Amino acid sequence: MFESARLPQKMTKKTFKKMEPEIREALLSAQLPVVEKQSFSTLILVDGLDGAGKGEAVARLYGWMDARHLVCNAYGEPMDEARLRPPLWRYWRDLPAKGETAIVFGSWYQSILRDLIYKKIDEDAFEKALVRIRRFEEMLSNEDVLILKFWFYLPKKEQEKRLSSIPKKHAARHVLADWAALKHHKKASEAGEKIILETSKGYAPWFVIPSQDPEYRDVALAQTVARSMKLKIEDGEPRSVAAPPVVGGLTRETAVDTIDLTESLEKAEYVEQRERYQKILSELSDRKAMTKTGVVLVFQGNDAAGKGGAIRRVIRPLDPRIYKVHPISAPTDEEKARPYLWRFWRRLPRKGHFAIFDRSWYERVLVERVEGFAGHEDWLRAYNEINEFEQELTDFGFIVCKFWLAISEDEQLRRFKAREDTAYKQHKITDEDWRNRLKWDQYAIAAGDMVDRTSTHYAPWTLVSSEDKRHARVKVLKTICERLEDRLEA
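Above: the chain sequence. Below: its structure as tokens.
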């Protein structure tokens, strides 16, 4: 996770100054109807790594909203009064009334995160705490509390740079604590990923905010709060928006946007590398250790990006008895009558075999999201359901390789026209393909959110430039070989 948050999202001070009045207007136009109607209360959790500017962002938010109906609750180590009560007591005590908004520093997540890092609790206790938190947040949501959770992400180098600008001997106590936390950046990031994966629900989603640029960070926070409150007041549902695609009039760059589409291979080099990795794949698939694992390959990407061609190069060196290719199209009536993951569970391989999905369960957060076949709550909760599904597969010993094949809009048009002009390729192009092309930007946003929310350490996405098909096919083969080697030689 955090792929897009690692990118240097930036906003000039000039743009920020120009947009600031609009941001304040959006926040007030969302907040004041809530105050008037008193139909729900709002909790804004500000969490993340030390040094990411959480205090600065909240200070700006205070300046933009009506502070009379806004309170900030900050929590550190529990005092005697709180120690004598269950851990969630102090958060229950300070819940805002309907119509009011509370900003929470040092939330129920921060306390268990610090306890884990400093070994006051073990992994089992951490897991149990996350279960309690999920129940707590679901109950609050059912009782008309809008929960907005923000994780401020900061790369380690940037964190160290910020903290080093403050001389330790002059630093306040909280800054010294930040310096101590810097040593645990990796563990804190991994624990943060786990928190987000396991507790980002439709009723209480997480929003990961890149915090390298203060103006971008603060506008992203404010716009998400405003849009979420507006949605809630309009339809009454305990829901919020996905990460904002546009911040302050600037397009939000995602990991998918950064794929280098100029990568290519000359034909001779392609043939040499393709044959090399096909030979390696054949040998790996014949190893005795393969009987202890199964392989699930997922191919997604832009229409006409070459998924089929890449799959054909993967299966060529494999024994046909140990793989099955599953082309996924619209669900049948039988499949619609069941939970959406049902049809994929039925197609899983047994150990020693490969299941290859030409499109997959990710259609839930791509086509079904963009085309409106799945409701907002349905596709938003699907990120977690998919992560849990893939974790169950990897915990069982499966390898899950996921590929996003990317091409440019111009290249897609060229390939569409070539398919129409070639008799044996005409079946590959449909009216639906042309309709989907009209929503290129919406699909790009959905793909970026998909990678951000479902690229995990146990099932990471591999982003593949497919403008040059030769390059794409070799990268896919190489990645599968590397993942298999890592597992079989462990």
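Residues 13-37 form the longest helix (25 residues).
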